[in-house]
Design goal:
Chain lengths: 326, 383
């Protein structure tokens, strides 16, 4: 059976199975287990209504538990074992990690990524949102800046390979350098330390559109009166933007910032395709992939370190969500 | 007057800076698109920004020893460099302009057209600007005439060759179908599962509801890396292994938190009156969900579908781990990152065409369904 056919069968079976489950389980509940008739009708309806939410939730909870909650525990457990998966070595994998030079580079680089990318993407997004607001061709401009969101990280990396290429006849950067009088082409991917920033540019290029779209909606939501009052008081456009508008959308800015931060900790594609983690550009997600399939103990240990970094922001996120529910 | 002048200057500044931003953002993609249609030799001869201009490329041809004749005391071969069969592709009309010629591959344009070069085996060579050459020596050239290198103005050439090569010999067509095969089920199945759960979390009263919503928000940011090793070994244990079934299940699991979160937020915002009055009329939750809430939630369903589609289509990590690494099962991202970049690292035409094939569908989806995508983003992050 070709994969394509297999895919069609899966859609039919998956969708059919889901519908059959939800419909069948409801029928079972209402007609067989707690029928809404006979002497116990009142009690039956109450009971059916107590069970029903869990009926609706069960498939989602099962999949979420298996694919996201269990791995948190499973990964930690696995990280306590050695390469073969049988010998318990406690925190040995973590000790080996911290002794590894590449791991320390990856941590430092990752910190740089987390500091620079969300800040830059949010900043450019905010500027783009404000500038395109009320512009006659603003929507077209927004579409173009938003477009990289649709492109895969691999595709984006390839696009930027054409900018960074170590050849003045292919790479835009080197062409500009040659035009300004430089003698030889440089491989920007091999410039120590700064190559990290050239890689970050790719992710900033992708994420600015995301920040722009959300912040632009937030800017539209600002009450007109506050801006009008500021104009009457003689504030100039910069004052209106920084003193009146930005403080009012601070909450959204924080949400955008944290969302991009989570993303930065997940993206391994860019480093993997551009440098393969060489030339001092390793970050934690790509470092983990270098151990995947070779030493699961190490790989899970790196994954757990990433989890520990995410944890504080995750807790804060949950607290925010709970506040909103109330 | 003064204020008005300032205002229009500010408006100009805004127009200009947005234009600069847009140009900056679109240039890399334009470069890729243009490069993918250029002749592979021209790509490395001049930058894509010069693609409409003629390119100076170097060629090699061999003087035809069969045309050798004696002239006075000399053996002479005459001909035209553009007539050689080797370069028939580039010079179909057998005409061109020579900008330089040479006798070694290392210095293919060392001599100006019309000047005389000493051949290494003795004798001289002259190539004129129109391509006519004359090689003369006191001894016969033997069976093989001397090799002539020359540099010539070549008109710009745009072709679909890169695409046909990458789709044919490099099996990008198979990878395209694989990507499609992975993406569609992985987009459809989570929607259905999530919709029911979202309805329960939005409109049904039961103990622990708040806790579950908080848990979904927490799972939203669990790093994917954590899930790889335990799930892969689980898949092997239950006999799924690295397969399409495995990756569908994995993507379903990883997409669910966002699906539940987006749909719950949207459903919770539906007007309470409609649902309450349906309840009063005796509709069951199942009926309310399928007849009222599901149709009303179409925009949210569409936004999530677009998200999940883009995410799965563009994913590299999950495909690398949960699909077998054989050629038949490679999706486009894996194909590009692991195959083409490694073996065809210097073949820019192939890389550009491959990249454009892989981003064409997401771009199409993006530009036609942008409205839903934006709405989904807003529902997900602004409250």
């Amino acid at each position: 059976m070709t994969p394509l056919l297999q895919g069609l069968v899966t859609i039919v079976l998956g969708v059919g199975g889901c519908i059959a489950y939800f419909y069948g389980a409801n029928l079972l509940l209402d007609k067989v287990l707690f029928p809404a008739r006979g002497p116990k009708i009142g009690r039956n309806i109450t009971r059916a209504n107590m069970v029903r939410p869990w009926l609706f939730l069960f498939p989602a909870l099962f999949v979420l538990g298996l694919y996201l909650a269990y791995p948190v525990v499973g990964s930690f457990w696995r990280s306590l074992y050695g390469r073969d998966g049988d010998s318990f070595i406690g925190l040995g994998n973590y000790q080996a990690l911290f002794a590894d030079e590449t791991f320390r580079t990856a941590v430092v680089n990752n910190l740089l990524w987390v500091l620079v990318v969300p800040a830059a993407a949010t900043f450019f997004g905010l500027i783009a949102a404000q500038l395109t607001d009320r512009l006659s061709w603003g929507n077209i401009a927004k579409s173009i800046i938003f477009m990289p969101m649709a492109i895969s990280f691999v595709g984006a990396s390839l696009i930027w390979k054409f900018v960074y290429a170590n050849d003045a006849d292919i790479g835009l950067i080197n062409a500009i350098r040659t035009g300004l009088g430089a003698d030889e082409a440089v491989d920007v991917m091999q410039v120590p330390f700064w190559n990290n920033f050239f890689l970050m540019v790719i992710l900033i290029w992708i994420q600015t559109g995301f920040a722009m779209v959300i912040l632009s909606a937030a800017l539209r939501g600002i009450p007109e009166e506050t801006v009008e009052a500021a104009i009457i008081d003689g504030a100039n456009p910069f004052q209106i933007f920084f003193r009146i508008k930005v403080p009012q959308i601070m909450g959204t800015i924080v949400v955008v910032w944290t969302t991009i931060t989570f993303l930065v900790l997940k993206v391994f594609d860019i480093v993997y395709t551009m440098t393969g983690g060489n030339f001092g550009t390793q970050i934690l997600p790509s470092y983990m992939m270098s151990y995947m399939f070779r030493d699961d103990g190490r790989a899970t240990a790196v994954a757990f370190v990433i989890m520990l970094i995410v944890l504080p922001v995750m807790v804060w996120n949950i607290l925010q969500a709970r506040k909103e529910l109330r | 007057m003064q204020v008005a002048g300032q205002k229009s200057r500010l408006a100009w500044a805004v127009h200009l800076s947005v234009a600069a931003l847009v140009v900056l953002w679109i240039i890399p993609t334009v470069g890729l698109l243009i490069s993918s249609f250029r002749d592979r030799d021209q790509i490395s001869a001049s930058g894509w920004w010069q693609s409409p201009l003629a390119v100076e490329q170097t060629y090699r041809t061999r003087a035809d020893a069969g045309a050798e004749r004696q002239e006075g005391g000399l053996y002479v071969i005459e001909g035209n460099v553009f007539a050689g069969e080797e370069n028939a592709d580039a010079f179909a009309a057998a005409r061109g302009t020579v900008t330089g010629f040479g006798i070694t591959g290392r210095a293919p344009a060392a001599f100006a057209p019309g000047s005389e070069a000493e051949l290494r085996g003795g004798g001289t060579l002259t190539v004129a600007q129109d391509g006519a050459f004359r090689a003369a020596a006191s001894d016969s050239f033997g069976r093989r005439g001397p090799t002539i290198y020359f540099e010539a103005e070549t008109p710009p050439r745009f072709t679909l060759e890169n695409y046909s090569r990458v789709l044919g010999a490099d099996q990008m067509n198979l990878a395209f179908i694989n990507t499609l095969t992975v993406t569609v089920p992985a987009t459809v199945i989570p929607i259905l599962i999530a919709a029911f759960a979202a309805y329960a979390l939005a409109w049904m009263e039961f103990p622990g509801r708040g806790l579950l919503i908080a848990a979904v928000v927490g799972l939203l940011v669990v790093p994917l890396q954590l899930a790889l090793v335990p799930l892969l070994s689980l898949h092997f244990k239950v006999g799924v292994g690295q397969s399409f079934l495995g990756i569908w299940m994995a993507h379903t699991g990883f997409g669910l938190p966002l699906a539940v979160y987006l749909l719950r937020n949207y459903m919770a915002g539906l007007p309470r009156d409609i649902i309450e009055s349906a309840r009063v009329d005796g509709a069951t939750d199942f009926q309310i969900f399928t007849r009222i809430v599901l149709p009303l939630s179409f925009p949210a369903l569409a936004s999530f579908a677009i998200f999940q589609f883009l995410w799965v289509w563009n994913d590299l990590l999950v495909a690398k781990v949960f699909l077998p690494s054989t050629d038949e099962a490679k999706v486009m991202t894996v194909k590009i990152a692991d195959d083409l970049l490694g073996s065809r690292g210097g073949d820019w035409g192939i890389l550009a065409a491959a990249a454009f094939i892989s981003i064409a569908v997401p771009l199409l989806v993006f530009f036609t369904l942008q409205r839903y995508l934006v709405r989904g983003l807003l529902a997900g992050s602004v409250k």
